[in-house]
UniProtKB/TrEMBL annotation:
Recorded GO MF terms: protein-arginine omega-N symmetric methyltransferase activity
A Pfam family reported for this protein in Swiss-Prot or TrEMBL: Methyltransf_28
Swiss-Prot/TrEMBL keywords: Methyltransferase, Mitochondrion, Transferase
Upper taxonomic lineage: Eukaryota, Fungi, Dikarya, Ascomycota, Saccharomycotina
Protein name: Protein arginine methyltransferase NDUFAF7
Enzyme category, top tier: transferase
GO CC entries: mitochondrion
Gene3D superfamilies assigned to the protein according to its UniProt record, in alphabetical order: 3.40.50.12710
PANTHER family named in the record: PROTEIN ARGININE METHYLTRANSFERASE NDUFAF7 HOMOLOG, MITOCHONDRIAL, PROTEIN ARGININE METHYLTRANSFERASE NDUFAF7, MITOCHONDRIAL
Length: 527
């Protein structure tokens, strides 16, 4: 993985007053390499665990600042706490503050002034649907796809580059990387991106992908509500509005009676996409309502039965980071401390933020407690955890990190509180390649000179990097049931589309089916 200058590093050694006027960023030690542990009162009194460790002894004698727990606590308490809601009103990145990991990531992605998604967001739209029965095979589809991108590229006068597709050798696995077009051929897109281009299955496989979802919704609506109630659909993050058009077109053509009773409502956080969606509803003007709002700020009760659609929403919902004491498994909450030099340090506090504490309690009460998750850091053998701390004493007696989906948990709470009679239909990535280290860790990536590059930490200059998380659908289905009290199921992307999609319409002459075979690392959850 790539590590380069935009990763902000803490100073490795204790401050030397003689050199304060000549501060130099130390990029030899990156933020994720050191964990600053904030002790409890009893831990502060007892001091660090006295493991025999010559490596730690060398570091301590060398003046590594993170081993001084009392200094860690003083520094942590000295910096004021700030959150992403406050930062959303600011045009400059913060300094001299501490911030929860989830707020740091949310600010990096969504700050309206410098966040990653505040740039020009473009979602690829093919000029017309692909005629699959006329295509030779999957390779022919890929060539047609890339040709369509090139035409889109020419229209936008930007440089074509490949991204959100992984596994270029057999081209059947969709991964974390986003299709993007940035700058000119010789420009550095990290510094001055002109255009970001994503692709989604809704766009690639239109109208058949949207029709598959329409068939699922229609079958469940007829089973539960028709003819007594209207068909009400909420879509969170609707992109170009293509799914909305495909669903409504299908209902209008095949189920006119249901179409007359349909209301389609979009909740869109992006102002640019909100405007674009508005421009595309002319054909179904009396059916569609678009709200420019973050679904996590939703505060209106919807009592009527409804469907809530969320496609590729979970992956960019912010997470918190937790590490556990290797002796007693006590969880420690991650914060990013940003100093006056804009250097980042990762601090861990024994006091948990409320949503983190609720998520951890909820998981233990669900069908998938930590004891049922073999890969969880807590379940590593104790001697392995001690061995890791022996060879890397900068961990300060803490485990590998876990990234917990606190914003997704909040989304489920919003569904329970404000959409009590909803049915959820969501899809996202169940696994991603080239993630940073940790359990349920994200991919952190950006475009650099028209190439997608990955880095080793989420602690990067805010707004320059996409941060995408995989979803553990087994765990989150248990959390969803625990929070909402509703029964839900999960399935692979292929299984859902094989059940509800028009398989014949998306099958090539060779018998290969791109709609079923691509996005092999995606899944659905539905209730």
């Amino acid at each position: 993985m790539l590590s380069f200058g935009k990763l902000r590093s803490p100073r490795f050694h204790k401050k030397d007053a003689k050199h304060d006027d000549k501060f130099i960023h130390d990029y030899s030690v990156l933020p994720y390499m050191i964990q600053y542990r904030v002790p409890t009162d009893s831990e502060l009194k007892a001091g660090p665990q006295p493991y025999a460790n010559p490596i730690k002894f060398i570091f301590e004698k060398g003046g590594v600042e993170s081993f001084d727990w009392s200094e860690n606590r003083l520094r942590f308490n000295r910096f004021p706490l700030i959150d992403s809601n406050v930062l959303a009103k600011r045009s400059k990145r913060p300094r001299n503050v501490k911030i929860l990991t989830s707020d740091f990531i949310e600010d990096s992605l969504y700050n309206p002034n410098y966040g990653y998604f505040s740039r020009e967001v473009v979602i690829f739209q093919p000029g017309k649907p692909f005629n699959y029965p006329e295509l030779k095979d999957r390779e022919d589809f890929m060539n047609q796809w890339l040709h369509a991108y090139k035409k889109y590229d020419d229209r936008k006068r930007a440089t074509f580059s490949q991204g959100k597709r992984k596994d270029s050798t057999d081209k059947i696995r969709m991964s974390s990387q986003s299709k993007k077009i940035t700058g000119s051929e010789n420009s550095t897109s990290l510094e001055n991106p002109s255009l970001q281009l994503w692709h989604t299955p809704t766009e690639l496989f239109q109208p058949y992908y949207g029709q598959a979802l329409a068939k699922y919704i229609l079958a469940n609506y007829k089973m539960n509500s028709f003819p007594y109630g209207d068909l009400i659909i909420y879509e969170v993050g609707a992109g170009n509005g293509t799914l909305m058009l495909n669903v409504l077109d299908y209902l209008e053509q095949h189920e006119p009676e249901v179409y007359r009773r349909t209301k389609y409502k979009i909740i869109e956080i992006s102002t640019k996409l909100f405007v674009k969606q508005h421009s595309r509803i002319t054909r179904h003007m009396d059916k569609v309502e678009v709200k420019n709002k973050n679904v996590l700020d939703w505060d209106e009760v919807v009592d009527e039965p409804c469907f809530v659609i969320a496609l590729e929403v979970f992956d960019n919902l912010s997470h918190d980071v937790i590490r556990y004491d290797i002796s007693d498994n006590k969880p420690y909450q991650g914060y990013v401390l940003i100093d006056e030099h804009n250097d980042f340090r990762e601090f861990y506090s024994p006091e948990l933020e409320p949503f983190t504490a609720k998520f951890l309690r909820c998981r233990e009460n669900s069908d998938t407690p930590i004891s049922q998750i073999p890969d969880h850091p807590v379940n590593q053998l104790k001697f392995v955890k001690k061995l890791k701390n022996t060879f890397d004493p900068l961990r300060n007696g803490l485990s590998d990190p876990e990234y917990v989906p606190t914003r997704l948990y909040k989304f489920f709470e919003i569904l329970k509180t404000y959409f009590p009679n909803h049915q959820l239909l969501a899809s996202d990535f169940s696994s991603l390649d080239k993630t940073i280290k940790g359990y349920n860790a994200p991919v952190v990536q950006t475009m650099l000179r028209n190439n997608m590059v990955n880095t080793d930490s989420y602690m990067c200059d805010q707004g320059f990097f996409d941060i995408m998380f995989p979803t553990d659908f087994e765990v989150m289905s248990s959390i969803y049931k625990e929070v909402t009290g509703k029964v839900c199921n999960t399935c692979t992307h292929e299984d859902f589309l094989r059940t509800w999609g028009d398989v014949d319409a998306t099958t090539t002459k060779s018998g290969e089916n791109p709609m079923l075979e691509l996005y092999s690392n995606a899944s659905f959850i539905y209730s």
